[in-house]
Amino acid sequence: MTDFTKQEERVNDDVKQLKRIGKRLDIEEKADVVIELLGLSIRLKNRIAQELGQMRAFEKGGIKRSNRILVYSKFDENIHVIDNIFNPSLPITLSIKWGGIDPFVALVWQKIAGRGDVIVDEVYEGCIDNNRFIELCKEKEWWKYIYGITAYCDPSRQDLIREWREEGIHLMGDRSLIEDINLVRAKIAPMKGDPTLFVDRKCEMVIWEFNHYKTDKDGYPINKSDNAMDAIRNYVKGITRKQRRNKMTELDSQKKLRQKTGGKLTEKFQDEADKLDNEFKELGKKYLPDISKLKAKLDIEKEDCTKLHFASGPIGSQT
What we know:
Helix content is 52%, strand content 11%. It is built from nine helices and seven strands. A seven-stranded mixed sheet has the order 1-7-4-3-2-5-6.
């Protein structure tokens, strides 16, 4: 079966789903059905426009494939896509990408022995609000195990974060940067050892985006087909920071022990300490110019406020 045939079957499945949803328009909850129908229609339209037309023209020899390079060119479905159903006996973690017109995305992660971090499920819906998206997640088998778990997200939407926290989920994270792509690449194809990031076969949109998230001619990621990719970056950056924080705590404990006993750090912890010191030095070099500019700007604003204060005179002197 060719890629084109597979894609055509997916579109046929979406058309059938459109028809099923259309029949539900006679029930009372018309608004939710219309929103669901609209979201699916947009996904179907994009899929047809981006995939079927291009693939048909390619097979007829009408166009050439794009010379743009995949952001995650080392992602290989034969390696990274596995059959791994959700295991309720293992802890879960969520990573979320906020949406609206663009899709909301929630990825469910589990750490699997001998594998690493595995995406075991996805919820991917566009043209929907946060509360409705939470309701969709509640329909999933894994939802009853989420109370008290950690979820990684973009921290800029505090209003949406509050709604998730009301469900008992602890959301945390830092704004994901383009540079964090390298963290994901390191899990897909590490310099040493086996990959540590895998996707369950049923997570079709994650797999689709891995195969369509591309760079422009200058090598920068294109802001397209990147919704699940953002959620993956949020997760990988979150667990990386957590691992570094745990190392720092362990090193602090070792240092306190050294101070008490007058001994030295073990060779292992000394290497870790040196590595972290080097990382902090590099971060300092990277962000010091921006910090200096910000400090200078604040000094100017402070000086302007001082001038304004003295120009207006002491309190109570105006008549």
